[in-house]
């Protein structure tokens, strides 16, 4: 029997077996940001250690950075302190830092791929659970905590238990108005918010292969929302095409050699898996979450589920929704387009395509937050910023923004937000009673225009 | 880098029941604005313990009868969501030494292990039984025996589970992984040279 990509990349990066069955794994690319790294730098300093391979760590700032007034010092002194700590730590240890002046700053999981740092067959770690995003390129990428950030800084390795691998296959054509975001919300609903614990998810099948690199990143990004710490997609011509010419991608003299390497780490045709599940793309319609975790999602035309399960009851109590009713027509207060899930150029293009010539409903505060400075510049070159602004969106600077509301972008009270982000947890968007409804960028555009949760196919006449 | 082995955890418990208790609930993102973990313990479960006006809720951690608890009893998929180590850090710094749950999210479990915050899993029916005992007699002392994978209380034994690698790491005092990783630094350098890729 053959091997899958996960096993091949794991084996190539395995330094040693550790007592108790864990493995010491080499991390080829370490990405850091201001929130989960300062304590790690403090810890290695205290122990008198250095960064072992500074050329394999790259930094940017995203979580706390304001998206409106980015003048230094930041108005929030805590945010300023964290920014200064990152500037100081990266300078002291010789780590490349993509700050705002570099022109490359942005959400860490958007910056890595667009600079060509994220490549097939590599291992990636970052102190952020959405690190699996990089798996879209056929990398094995782990979200880690601060002690592991310390471990990677000090040794470029970490101690890990082995993973099982589940092949998650989706086949067929997506229906009009259905996007990668809908696919992943559908898969999480089917496999459960904890269904992936202990697994790496290999996303495969003709639907996944048919997605753009941006769409593939959206899929892998949310693997963790289904409990899978690792998610990946086998690389192909589309992957290589995306990488060509990127700042850190292999140059022409090494290109063929690297393509050969990338081809070699793909899952074998007869690869073994611990589990295989298969879904049909035609069963998927535009999805929206209705509850307090990403599994609590339905197709836009479905009624809110009736279920006596305590988790459902807790969700209904928090969201103030009624089982058996339709979620369509629910009034929204805020529309948010952005985040590492849906803050890439294609996401902005898709939303702008539908917003052109339309107006955001009067009572809705609408935010478009490009995922990075690169995305922002590209969007502006294409005139997307004008479309958003004319429609009534605020056009912001790059950052995580209202995905987790560590910067000034927050919900107020029990406001409802139609959001392209990845988590609808209680209080996630900055208000302890704020309500998040996750959906695709085009669905947020529809909700922004009508002022209520809507089926984009009806609003924009998509057939 | 050897640290004290953890063989047993003994203490009173507080039931914080429910499934999918995520890390945003354990530590709201606004308390991640810090460059040190010092003082983070007071913010554990903050938005669950206090309403928008800062008034205490009926969260079990606010209940005086659980004041001295050092073990949390919870449900399925505890610690799901963000990879923020601030979550187990805040729980540990709030005075807890162990969590008994039906299951744990993976990143949270790993982060907790590194800190020596013991996470054990148990069947749902046993968890419910434990929670009932603790609710009616909060002074009950639980003893988690890591070697035996067993929780003893009120003269009864309940089977619990712990990952073999975590068990060994706790018993050997090697749960903070950096020490063992540093031992192999020569092998690490060798492997780095064998890789096909770099970013220089």
Structure description:
The complex is a heterodimer of chains A (463) and B (200). Chain A has 463 residues and is an alpha/beta fold. Chain A is 33% helix and 17% strand. In chain A, the strands form five sheets. In chain A, strands 5-4-3-6-7 form a five-stranded parallel sheet, sandwiched between helices. In chain A, strand 13 and strand 14 form a beta hairpin. Chain A starts with a helix and ends with a helix. In chain B, 32% of the residues lie in helices and 15% in strands. Chain B is built from eight helices and eight strands, in the order ββααβαβαβαβββααα. Chain B is globular. The two termini of chain B are 33 Å apart. The interface between A and B is large, with 86 and 65 residues.
Quick overview of this protein structure:
Chain A has 463 residues and is of the alpha/beta class.
Decide which structural class fits the backbone of chain B. alpha/beta
Query: Do you know the CATH topology of chain B?
Result: Aconitase, domain 4
**End-to-end distance of chain A:** 44 Å
Order of helices and strands of chain B: EEHHEHEHEHEEEHHH
- The backbone outline of chain A, from C-alpha atoms, is globular
User: Remind me, CATH topology of the largest domain in chain A?
Assistant: Aconitase, domain 3
In total, the number of domains of chain B comes to 1
Mean pLDDT of chain A equals: 97
Low-confidence stretches of chain A: none
* Order of adjacent strands in the largest pleated sheet of chain A: 5-4-3-6-7
How helix-rich are the residues of chain A, as a percent range? 25-40%
Mean pLDDT of chain B: 96
Q: Can you identify the CATH superfamily of chain B?
A: Aconitase, domain 4
* CATH C-level category of the largest domain in chain A: Alpha Beta
Number of helices of chain B: 8
